[in-house]
Every structure is written in C-alpha cells, then in structure tokens.
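Appendix B, example 12.
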Amino acid sequence: MMRTANLVSLLLAVVCAAAVSAASGAWAQGLDLRGGEDGLPIAINASGGIEWNQEEKVFIASGPAKATQGDMVLDADELRAYYRDGATGGSEIFRLDAIGNVRITSPGRVATGGRAVYDVDKSVVVLKEGNPVKLISGADIIIAKGQLEFWDKRSLAVARGGAQAARVDKRIRADVLTAHFSKGEGGKTQVELIEAFDNVRIDTANEQVFSDRAAYNVPTGLARLTGSVKIERGGNQLNGCSADIDLNTGISRLNSCEGAGVSGTTAGAQTPSASTPGRVHGVLTPKDRK
C-alpha cells in the first residue's frame, strides 16, 4: 500500500487544484504524478473532476480530460491513470487508459481513435476503435481498421488490419504496415520508411502493383516489392518475383526470380534470355483498332 504521507499529498494536490479552479470560475481539476520507469512527470487535467479509487489504485478523470508527458498530449472523454508504489518511495503512473474521442499529439504527428492504452514504462500507445484509427504525420496519412501502435523509444508506428498509407495520389495497402520516423526541420517527426506485409497493394495515378512485401523509402519515392509481384496498367499485366518502383516518376522495373533478368517498364516489357531461370511473365492487351 502507498505510504500515508503520499496519499495525503495526492489528496492535497487534487483538493488544491479544485479550489483554484473554482476560484477562477472553471471546474477543471489537475493532478501531477511521476510516470513509470523513466520518471517523467505526467500532468492530468479534467473539466469534469477527478475520482480517486484507492482500492484499485486508479484516478478517473472525467472529461474532457488531458494528460501531458513531455511533448506528448493525450486528450479523451475520460482518462484512467493506474499508479503503483515507486521503487524509491512515492507513487508513479504505469498505465493510462483513454476512452472516447481520443486524440494524441506530438511534434509533427496527430493520431485519433476511439480508445487508447498507454504503457508508460515502455512508452507504447495502442490506439483502436476509431473506425478507422488514423495517424497524420506531415503529408502522410496512415489508417487501420484494427489498431495503431506507437513505439516512441523506437520511433516506430505499426498499423494492423486493413492498413493504408497515403500521400497525395499514392497509396499503399497491406494487412500490416510499419512506419519508421525521423526528426525533420524544427524537431518535427516525419515518416522515413514504410514497410508493408501481406496482401500488399500500391496504387499510383497510372497503375496498381501487388506483392507479398514492400519497403517504401518516402523521401526518395523508391519502393522495393518482393514475393508474387504483379503490375497492372491499362489492361496490361506483368508478373515476377520482385520489382523496383519510383512512385515519383511512375517508372516500374520488374525483376526475374533470380534477380538477373529485367523487364523494362510496364509500357513495354523486355523478357530475360531463354537461359535465365525464373523468367518474368507479361500479358499485354492491344488496343482495338477502328
């Protein structure tokens, strides 16, 4: 159990915050606790008040409610902060549940959904029930019908179930997408690399490309696809084991299964020589002549 002094200090924090809010005409309540293993402070504010359940060691903030840790802000209709006794005394939050109209912001990123769980120790947020859940990072939009995971320490996001990543007229779909982030100008986060797994489809203005896996370098616009690759454009179809696509120029290069033979673009494929194993296969549909 928490020490009596710690319990009293927490109570005072809640009561004092309520008193200050009442004096200013607002009914918001605030609470500051240390967070998890990193010890970064977590500030919680709620316009509907904060309920303290000592038996379950949880604070319930009625909304709209806001939790802030470092440069991350978590907004929701309700927040539930679960705490434990700290290793060096005091208390610390190890988990935050956000329920209803969830919005997570950090420099360069905004994510929305219906429900979220934040593992404070691991710095991992799982966002779901958003129909779909969505992440906006600069010009890139990532959505999922299942859930979105944010691994802050690894600068990684994982979209599961009907996942899509879009930028202007380019779109990548897959069962699972991973987005790797890097710091851009002004410290804002930007998407550096997108990896796609299972039932991959890439749509551009002129073609559709299908494969088992893909790796898309966002700054360069270059994508590498592997496993049962199929390219369709204007009624034409090319099949191979891997392909390189420049999503900025629309030029596609289909490779043989051994990686030695190369087709040209989808506008007119060149097949490898007869001695090359694992040929590229193409089906070209001529236009009707009137």
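The first helix runs from residue 4 to 23. The helical segments are 4-23.
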